[in-house]
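Quick entry between incubations.
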Amino acid sequence: MKILVCISNVPDTTSKINFTGDNKEFDKNGVQFVINPWDEYALTRAIEIKEAKGGTVTVLNVGEADAEPNIRKALAIGADDAIRVNAHPKDAFFVAQQITAVAKENNYDMILMGKESIDYNGFQVHNMVGEMLGIPSVTPAFKLDMVDDSTARLEREIEGGKEVVEVKLPFVASAQQPMSEPRIPNMRGIMTARTKPLAVREPVGAEAKAEYVGYSKPEKKGGVKMIDPENAGELIALLRNEAKVL
Amino acid sequence: MSVLVFVEGLNGEIKKSSLEAAAYGSQVAQTLGTSATAVAIGEVHEEALAKLGEQGISKVLYDADSRLNQFVADAYVKVIAKAAQQESAKVLVFANSNIGAAVGSKLAVRLNGSLATNVTTLPKTDGGQFVVTRGVFSGKAFADVALTSDVKIIAVKKNAFEVSSNGGSTAAVEKLSADLADADFAAAPKETVMQDTDGGILLPEAEIVVSGGRGLKGPENWHLVEDLAKALGAATACSKPVSDLDWRPHHEHVGQTGITVSPNLYIAIGISGAIQHLAGVNSSKVIVVINKDPEAPFFKAADYGIVGDAFDVVPKLIEAAKALDK
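Done. Structure below.
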């Protein structure tokens, strides 16, 4: 089983989000970066499948050199090797093209990633990769099991329910909770990760189709209006007459 | 050239998020001086299709192939691509749902188009540009994105646009057939299981959400959340610790790694308001926080707050909500 897991390097969930340069760029100053939490579900499930069935897990990141600590972390968690496509991830289409180029050179049995990154919240790349490679993409999946050596069974969330899908390898899937329980790297993992291969390659020529031209932040709330718990019922009247949401 | 909107059906009706997409699409069409067509798939009543006229849709293309009653990405893409070609559509509009965003992503590749998901504004088209605003950083910011390809694909964030209700005309319904082959259904689901939605309100589509946290002390107390939800016509939700403890199912978990909701009203009971939870609810229009801890961080993000014990406060709210004339 050859599994490719794509990971993004994203601001930690507790980060304060600010912009610089006339609100044209994300301010990385003081921000700690982590492996995208959704991608961690995919990574852990890939490692679990490898442990049960044998094979390899390769992690792929489309990003600049500052992503390498988190690529090493993915290796410490249990991936075997890593590839970094040395490019700023301009948009989903650009990233999907880079992943597709890597996938075309290697016959992966499955390509996994999180359902979206917590920074750009696109929910696009997995379906684009599936379409570019002409293989099924099952998203967002919260359960992934092998039926036999050539078939996987996934459960995917749809609005208001779930679908059970069986697909032949190879396929693309995106992960969401509770596909797996993300792992914390242990000391042995951290030591071995230092010497695992991390290949850096240049991007294939690909255009971005969505250009990020500026950022803004939501307006601050006007402040909270407190209601006396003894007269809690008053809240309902305020929601109808003042907030006009009932 | 026209604007094409993909509408999703559920139990014969059109989903609210798709009606919002239809209203959005016809406004874009007006800006561009063209008309808006919708494409519908699967089990939708003909009256529901014609009623899309209320959202400004002039024509509906409908593929009634019963194999499309469940979601199969490749087949859906083929039908919508056919409609896009027939209508020479330059702008495609979807709801930002699991289905809409999936189909939109695949069409972006097939039609060589620019895609923006999670879109919260109409396009700005001055200077020949086509710029939309989309939610990024899990609700903590917005980004302006220029869509540079000839074909533009937009997935509209739920509850970001008003559905029009001013009557209006009926849309003409025309049959569409995309000549689907068995191969288009190769990845069809083996089984589809719909949740038992008490009262029929889907969490991702709900206008009002009542959500409970660990402050409720145990699943046996969930009747407080459920009764208030019922009285308000709301969907129920929960925080991550609650779904981790298996008090409630995972599909009710809202937050950074759960469902993102953007209702008109979000009522949080016994939820402290960790930043990861806020990421899933911070685009709600009005937030109410009920917590016995006055220092709970959620109060900083709230519009209305009550410091008090849920077991005292919520029954009073249920009583007041029941007394409201609908």
